[in-house]
Amino acid sequence: MSEFICPIIDSKNLTARGIMNLADNLQQQNKLNLIWLEATGCSGNIISMMNANNPNLYYFLKNIVNLKYNNSLMAAEGQGAYQQFLNTLETDFILVVEGAVATKAEGRYNIIASNNGLPVTAMEAVKLAGDKAKYIVAVGTCASYGGISAARPNPSGSVSLQEYLKKNILKVPGCPGHPEWIIGTIAHLVYFGMPELDEQGRPIIFYGITIHDRCSRRSYFDRGIFAEHLGEPECMFKLGCRGPITRTDCPIRKWNDHSNWPIGDNTPCIGCARQGFPDGMEPFVRY
Amino acid sequence: MANTVTVNPVTRISGFLEIKAEVENGIIVDAKSSGLLFRGFEKMLQGRAPLDAIYFTQRICGICSTAHSMSSSLALESALNVQPDIHSRMIKEFVHGCEFIQNHLRHFYQYTLPDYIKGPDINPLYGVNHKDFRLPKYLNEELSRHYVDSLDYSRRAHDLLATLGGKAPHDHGIFVGGITSDIDISKLAKLKSILSGIGQFIEDAMIEDCNIIGQYYPEYYNLGVGDKNLMTYGVFNYPAFKGIHYTEAGIYLNGKHEVFDSVLIDEDIQKTWYTSENIINKPEGPYTEEDLNKQGAYSWVKAPRYKGHSMEVGPLARMFISGEYTRGISTMDRTMARVLEARKVIGIMQNILELIPQYQNKQRQYEMPDKAQGSGLIDTTRGALGHWLAIENKVIKNYSIITPSAWNLSPQDHTGMKGTVESALVGTNIEDINNPVEIGRIVRSFDPCISCATHVYGKNSASVEIRIM
Predict the structure, then answer these.
(1) Alpha-carbon gap, residue A68 to A86, rounded angstroms
(2) In chain B, what residues touch A119 (CB-CB under 8 Å)?
(3) Which domain range does residue B61 map to?
(4) Contacts with B126 from chain A: Cβ below 8 Å
C-alpha cells in the first residue's frame, strides 16, 4: 500500500479507518530510522525499553522512530534480518548500540549475523553503521564506558563505543539505561536535534546532578545517621553507597513506573551508571 | 542432495545464536547450534568480594537477571552457612516469580508470536521472509492486539519485581538471608492488585491465544520433539504448603522418572572453543581456556550432561516432571507449558501473599569466612541454573555457572551425542528451504538465552571458574 502517494483514487472502497492507516504509513516513512545493535552485553537495555510507559515501547516505535534492526524484537531472521540492517545503512538513521565492542581476535568473541555464509562480528557491524549514522547513541554502561563486559581482566577485550569508533557520541549510561533516559534522548534527537551534553557526552537533563544531591536519605547523611547493614532506613554511605559520585536523576525519577529504586529498597547505589563500573565501584556492599 | 541451511541471527532470543542444518530431501539430517558470544564472567569474578557476586552475576543476562541473583544468593547462603527462615525464603522466591511472569509474557508475545501471526503495524515486525501465516484475519488481528496489550502487563511484572527488588532488570533486593525490603499494607495492596491484573490477562488472553496457535499449527505438536530427557532442580518447592508447592528436583530419563543427584552433572568441551587437560569436567573445575582455532569446535556454549545425557530444561520439563502437564513433548507443548506455567506461578505468588501479608526484612551484617564453598541450584524461567562458588582469603577463588540455555543449546559432546535443540531439529521436514521457518519456531520454543553463554578464561591453573552459558 505504501507505494501510492494519494490513497483516495484507487481506494473508493476503503473505510475511513483504512485511509487513516495509509496516512499513518506515510507518516511512518517520514520518521527517522533506528538501528539498535546489541553487542557484547546482556541485552538488558532493550528489555529496559520494554518497561517504558508513557510513552511505552509501542508508541515509541509507532510515532517516534522506525526501528529497522534489533535482534530481540525483529520478526525477520537470518539473512533477511541482516539485509534489513544493510538496507538501512543507505538511509538517514540513528544508531543505538548496547553492549561494549569486543575487540579480541578481530572481534570474533561476538558474532551477530551471517552474511552470505560469512560471519559478521559486532565490531564490524558497529563500524559499518557508525560510519554512516546521523547520530550515535551508546545506551547502557557497557556501550558508554566498557562496563561489566570490560571488567578486569577483560577476557573479551571489550571497549566502549567511543573508544572503538574514535568519535564523539551520545552516552546514556546505566545498568541498564532507564527507559525514560533512552527515549528522552532519542526523542530529543528526532524533534529538536542534539540535547545539551556534559563533558562526557551525557544529556544534562538526566545526568546533571548526583544521586546524593537529591537523595531521599540525605537528611540522615547530614545528621550523621548511618545504616549498619542492608535493610535499614538510614543513609548507606558507610556501606559503600556510590550516590555521592554517581550522576543520574534516580532519586527523583525512580525505576519501573517510578515505583522504587535501589536506595528505596534499603540497598546502596553501586554506581552502575558511572565510568569505572564495576571495578572502581567495588565492593558494592561494604561489611 | 544435501543443502546447508544457516539461520544467523536467530532473532527474538536473548543473545547471539546460529543454527546450521543439513537438509536432505526436505528433511533435516544434522543440526549444529552455535553460541556466538563470549564474555568470561567466571574469570572476572575471581578475586572479587563474594557478596558482590549477587549483583555482578545478574549482569550476565538482561531478561533473566533475577535468576542469577537467586542462584548466587543461594550459593552464598550455603557457603556462609546462613539459613533464612521459611518466610524469607518464600518472599525471595516471590520476587523470582515476578521474573517468571515478565519473561513468559515477553517470550510468548514478543519472541514467539511473530513466528505465527502477522504482527502489529510497527517497523521491526515488518519484513518477514516466510508466508506461512494461517490465522483468519479476525484472529490475527486479535492476537496482534494482544501483542501490544501484553507490553503493559510484562512492564507491570517488572514493576512488581521492583516494588520488592528496587529495580529491574538487575535487581538489588534479593540478597543473602532473604530480601532487603519490607511488605507493609500499601505494598501488599499494590502487589495484589498488579498480580490480579496480570493473572486476568493470562487467563483471558494468553492461554487462549496459545490454544489458537496450537489449533492452526497442529503439526508443531509433533515437531521439535528431541530425546525426551527432562530435568529440573526444583522451584517453589514447599510440599508442606499446599498452594505454594510447584516442583522438587527430578529427572525424566529414557521414559522413567528418577531422583536427581547433582553429582551426576559434568561438562564436555569437545566441540567448544575451549581447551583443558580433560574433555569432561565437573562443574567446579578445572579451568578451560579459549581457543578459537580449535579443530571441529563450533560453539562458546559448553555441553553439560547428566549421566552422559543431554537434558531438556525449562517450563515443559518442570510441568511434565511435576505431573502438571503431560500431554507430550514437542514445540507446541513447550510453548503451551510455558503459558500454563505463567498461570501456575501467579497462583503460587498469590498464595505466598496470603500466607505472608506482612514482612520485615531479616538483613544483618555477614561475616566472610576465610575459606568456604557453596552451591545454589534452582530452576529459573528457562530451566535449571547452577552457581558453584569457592571462597579463599575472603574473596572469590572460583565461581562456576551452568545456565539453562547451556543444557538446551549445547553442542555435541565427545561421544557424538547432540545437544537438546540439535536433536529436536533432526528429522524436521522443511517446506521451503529458502525460508526455513520451522527451524526458528522449534529453537524459540526453548527460549534460548545466549547472553548467558560465557565461559572461563585464564592461566591460573589452580583455580576454576565460572561458566555461564
Answers:
(1) 10
(2) 8, 36
(3) 2-452
(4) 75
- Interface list for B 133-172 with A (CB within 8 A): 148, 151-152, 154-156, 158-159, 161-170, 172
A82 at the B interface (CB within 8 A)? yes
Rounded distance between C-alpha atoms, residue A115 and residue A120, angstroms: 7
Total of domains in chain B: 1
Q: Does A81 touch chain B (CB under 8 A)?
A: yes
Helices (H), strands (E): how many in chain A?
Answer: 12, 9
B360-B361-B362 Cα angle (round to 5): 115
Q: Rounded to an integer, what distance in angstroms lies between the CA atom of residue B54 and that of residue B65?
A: 10
Instruction: Look at the block and give the residue holding cell 501479608.
Output: B357
Considering only the beta carbons, identify the residue of B37, B167, B169 that sits closest to A110: B37
- As a whole number of angstroms, the distance between CA B21 and CA B19 comes to 6
CA distance B442 to chain A (A): 14
Chain B residue with CA closest to A233: the answer is B181
Averaged confidence pLDDT in chain A: 92
A265–B contact, CB cutoff 8 A: yes
Kindly report the CATH number that applies to the domain delimited by A211-281: 4.10.480.10
Q: Does B13 reach chain A within 8 Å, measured CB to CB?
A: yes
As a whole number of angstroms, the distance between CA B142 and CA B207 comes to: 13
Cell of B291: 581457543
Per-residue model confidence (pLDDT) at position B454: 54
Is the bond into B436 cis (omega within 30 degrees of 0)?
no
Residue B57: name the closest of B71, B77, B76, B47 by CA. Answer: B71
Contact A46, A72 (CB under 8 A): yes
Contact A34, A93 (CB under 8 A): yes
C-alpha cell at B76: 552464598
> For residue A166, is it left (φ>0), alpha (ψ between -120 and 50) or beta?
left
The amino acid that residue A110 corresponds to is N
Whether residues A44 and B49 touch (CB distance < 8 A) is answered with: no
Q: Which amino acid is at A180?
A: E
**Per DSSP, which regions of chain A are E strands?**
32-38, 65-69, 93-98, 101-102, 111-115, 118-121, 135-139, 158-159, 170-172
**Tens of pLDDT along B154-211?**
999 999 999 999 999 999 999 999 999 999 999 999 999 999 999 999 999 999 999 9
Contact across the interface for A112 and B16, Cβ inside 8 Å: yes
| Rounded Cα–Cα distance for residues B397 and B373 (Å) | 9
- B311: domain CATH number is 1.10.645.10
Decide if B237 contacts B94 (C-beta within 8 A). Answer: no
What are the residues whose beta carbons fall under 8 Å from the beta carbon of B359, sequence distance 6 or more?
B87, B91, B182, B183
User: pLDDT by residue (tens digit) across A153-178?
Assistant: 999 999 999 999 999 999 999 999 99
* Of the partner residues A67, A114, A155, the one whose CB lies closest to the CB of residue B8: A114
Residues B199, B153: Cα–Cα separation, whole Å = 9
Assign a CATH topology to domain A31-206.
Answer: Rossmann fold (3.40.50)
Residue B393 counted as domain residue: yes
A3 touches B99 (CB < 8 A): no
Closest residue by Cα to residue B129 from B423, B439, B442:
B439
> Hey, where are the domains in chain A?
31-206, 211-281
Contacts of residue B167, Cβ cutoff 8 Å, sequence gap at least 6: A255, A256, A260, A261, A262, A265
Q: What is the ipTM of this complex?
A: 0.95
The residue type found at B215 is Q
Q: How far apart are CA A228 and CA B354, in angstroms?
A: 31
Q: CA–CA separation, B224 vs B219, rounded Å? A: 10
Closest Cβ opposite residue A265 in set B43, B123, B181: B181
Instruction: Tell whether B347 lies on the interface with A, counting CB pairs under 8 A.
Output: no
**Cross-chain Cβ contact B52/A66 below 8 Å:** no
What phi, psi does A276 have (nearest 5°)? 95, -10
Residue B31 in grid coordinates: 543440526
